[in-house]
Design a protein that fits this description.
Length: 358
């Protein structure tokens, strides 16, 4: 009885407060989604195919977006302060980029635009924004959604061994970008390339096909390119050749010249990125004998925007005088190249076990 009395009293107080403040439930939105339009463009510089989806609205709305992961890749765009009824939705002009669109009403003033995707979609491959109404040009308020070509999830050849595998090797920096420079003027771009070429030779002797982003001291795009364009050029070498894995080889540097050790970075975009990074890190620590800094996640462009499992290796610190001397030694490079290849071989064996395809 006491609980019932308290609840009743609370409700009475709330109703009284509502009356005093003049509060009422928000009325149904007057803003309507009035039309859906598609467009398809090709970037003249990059060749990127893009779909533009435009939703016309009778007034301003608030927009939020997020992506859901597999098995159902979707871009959710939430339109707050809007409603949509009986809107004709034309089919997507390119199902390889957007499979379809549906408008789902979740509350009386919230609509979700569910964009079905054929694969994962990196953050830099889509953009959602609004455009104010332009009465003079007879243009309504618009919600614009640009979506680039989605990333096909490349399947690893899950057999053990290196024979027949396509492996992309990326010697970091090069050309106009020297990378780190050690106390004895050791250029990172040079030791990256020297080590990468040794890795290439060992892999090819084992029967692998090696795809190099560069084999000389050059930029992968052009000297005037932005950092992003240069990194995209490297990623696309691997993507276009449908490599099974991507390895970017670097050497570290720090203001603290006492720091030493080996590190491997990855970006979690497939089930196998972490496995690849750990396999190579373990092998490099065993083979090179440097301090084990460990495996870490990172938002590095080349490991994020390659379509296959990828790892970025920081072999050691050029900023450490003792380590600089070791890292520039052909004998140590050979030892480390063998370790990297052993780690790659270990990865394919472990990946095969994970898929039950030994």
């Amino acid at each position: 009885m006491r609980i019932r009395y308290c609840v009743g009293l609370l409700l009475t107080m709330l109703l009284s407060l509502t009356s005093v403040l003049g509060w009422a439930a928000p009325a149904e939105s007057n803003v309507k989604i009035t039309a859906v339009r598609w467009g398809r463009t090709v970037d003249a510089v990059t060749g990127t195919v893009k779909i533009r989806l435009v939703l016309d609205a009778s007034g301003p709305v608030e927009v939020e977006q997020f992506i859901t992961a597999k098995p159902n890749w979707r871009l959710f765009v939430t339109l707050r302060g809007a409603s949509a009824d009986n809107i004709a939705i034309p089919p997507s002009p390119d199902p390889t980029i957007i499979k379809g669109l549906s408008l789902v009403k979740s509350t009386k003033d919230t609509v979700h635009a569910l964009i079905e995707l054929p694969g994962s979609l990196p953050e830099d491959q889509y953009k959602v924004f609004t455009v104010k109404a332009d009465p003079k040009a007879n243009r309504p308020f618009r919600i614009v959604i640009d979506v680039g070509k989605t990333v096909p999830i490349t399947d690893v050849k899950f057999s053990a061994g290196l024979k027949g595998k396509v492996i992309a090797i990326d010697p970091g920096h090069g050309g106009s970008d020297p990378g780190a420079i050690g106390p004895q003027r050791t250029f990172e771009k040079k030791v990256n390339l020297d080590l990468s070429m040794q890795v290439k030779a060992i892999l090819e002797r084992a029967g692998a096909q090696v795809v190099m982003t560069r084999q000389t001291d050059i930029d992968c795009s052009n000297p005037d390119a932005t950092d992003r364009e240069e990194l995209m050029a490297r990623a696309m070498v691997a993507n276009n050749r449908k490599a099974d894995i991507f390895i970017s080889i670097h050497h570290n540097s720090s203001a603290n010249s006492n720091l030493t050790g080996t590190t491997t970075y990855y970006y979690r975009k497939t089930l196998f990125d972490a496995v690849l990074a750990q396999s190579i890190q373990d092998a490099m620590v065993r083979g090179g004998g440097l301090d084990n800094i460990g495996v870490r996640t990172a938002n590095f462009f080349v490991v994020k925007n390659t379509w296959m499992p990828a790892a970025l290796l920081e072999i050691g610190f050029l900023s450490n005088p003792r380590e600089e001397q070791m890292l520039s030694s052909p004998a140590f490079q050979q030892k480390m190249a063998l370790a990297i290849v052993a780690g790659i071989d270990q990865f394919f064996g472990q990946a095969a076990k994970m898929r039950g395809e030994q």
